[in-house]
From TrEMBL:
Keyword Transcription: no
PANTHER family reported in the protein's UniProt record: CONSERVED INTEGRAL MEMBRANE ALANINE VALINE AND LEUCINE RICH PROTEIN-RELATED (PTHR40761:SF1)
Domain of life: Bacteria
SUPFAM superfamilies, per database record: Multidrug resistance efflux transporter EmrE
Alphabetical keyword list: Membrane, Transmembrane, Transmembrane helix
Protein name as it appears in the record: DMT family transporter
Length: 283
């Protein structure tokens, strides 16, 4: 439990800093980019030409390594709530580096995320065993196809609705990462190579990363990030409890629910700190 929670908090720090760089880098790429197979290569190349985006990519990859450890050791609801601390990191960095100020509500959100995570840590039981679940694996594969198709449609619009839809789809993609990491089986290399979740895991992450970058181009960071945070937190938590046998300590269900709600609500309030103005703008 201690190792898993430490890994989740370490990942949150890396994700919090990476979100700032991703927002800056994504907005320097022309907004006519869309999720079209004929243009996807050019879009990715354009992103990789941005130093800020490369920094975000490096931090997200390192953060995922720690997040993967947390997903294997903790119940999914606790691992995902731990990642929500990334928004607290971003908010506190913004107050130091950008002379931003936290309102009373936002300071309450910071406290709420921390208290909620503490309640979840105390209430958490054992993580369910990493067992094969063919139905869930097929669901992830079908879901990825649907996410890609809807993302391609949404990316053709500059309307605010497309920003929210792309953010929502990105959240489902990141949920696929968490669930795939949990379904991945321990075993020999030959068994690992034959496991579908070995492939759904990176595909989910790459698709979610691209969709979120497209969302950041098209509208406010709040509109893009709020549905992403909500779905990447709630979806794996529900799957973990109802399908993968993640446990809550006997008698601690009210504390676990309260902790999860506090963490999720605080994260949504702090979403605005995912946005950073370009360096040549005044804070």
């Amino acid at each position: 439990m201690v190792l898993g929670l430490g890994a989740a908090l370490g990942a949150a720090v890396l994700f919090g800093v990476g979100a700032i760089l991703q927002a800056v880098g994504s907005r320097k790429v022309p907004t006519e980019s869309e999720l079209d197979p004929r243009r996807l290569g050019g879009f990715v190349v354009a992103l990789l030409r941005q130093p800020a985006f490369l920094g975000a990519l490096a931090l997200n990859l390192a953060g995922f390594g720690l997040h993967f450890v947390a997903l294997r050791l903790l119940p999914l609801y606790l691992a995902q709530a731990g990642i929500a601390v990334s928004l607290v990191v971003t908010a506190l960095l913004a107050t130091r580096l950008m002379s931003d100020k936290l309102s009373t509500l936002e300071w309450s959100a910071v406290i709420g995320v921390c208290v909620g995570l503490g309640l979840l840590a105390v209430a958490a039981g054992d993580a369910g065993a990493s067992a094969q679940h063919h139905g869930l694996t097929i669901g992830i594969i079908v879901g990825l196809v649907v996410i890609a198709v809807l993302g391609a449609v949404a990316s053709r619009s500059q309307h605010g609705v497309s920003t929210a839809l792309l953010g929502m789809l990105a959240g489902l993609g990141y949920a696929g990462v968490a669930i795939s990491a949990r379904l991945l089986q321990d075993g020999s290399m030959s068994e690992l190579v034959r496991s579908p979740t070995l492939y759904t895991l990176p595909i989910s992450g790459a698709l979610a990363f691209i969709l979120y970058s497209l969302a950041l181009q098209r509208g406010s960071v709040t509109l893009a990030t709020t549905p992403m945070i909500a779905l990447q937190t709630i979806t794996p938590a529900a799957v973990g409890v109802f399908v993968l046998d993640d446990a809550v300590r006997a008698g601690w269900w009210p504390a676990a629910i309260a902790g999860f709600v506090l963490s999720a609500a605080g994260s949504v309030i702090l979403v605005r700190f995912e946005s950073v103005k370009p360096p040549d703008d005044k804070p």
